[in-house]
Amino acid sequence: MTGATRRGSECSAASQWPAPKLSVVVEATVIERPVGGVEAFKQQLDRLLHLVERSVLRLQVVPPCPPFHHGGSGPFRIYTFPDKPVVASAEHMGGEQLMDEMMRIQHCTAVFGLLQAEALSTRASRDLIRKVKEELDNYQE
Is the dihedral of CA 118, 122, 123, 128 positive or negative? Predict the structure, then answer.
């Protein structure tokens, strides 16, 4: 999350109808380390909670130091469409690589499933975000 996160009606994913279904797995440090200052970070957490509560976003958090972590190869995305083939993309230092080969897409899908299995449930993830937000509300800069 960055300070450049769009809010309200400017967030295209949340304002589309029907809204796309977004399933995201992040490491705990993403929601525990303030980026852009405490106030901006609290707003970002509020936005995440809003999207989760509206069922626009299905968010799971991988706890610190899981016994097995399958996300070590870096961030990736899987895009599914009702009328187009599935594609995936992977981020790297030089940018992002789009993949449309079935074997690579299946690998990404399998890794995503493993990440979901090792992550906290959506309810526990939401509760963790709320806890972090409450701690930040009590924090004095």
Answer: positive
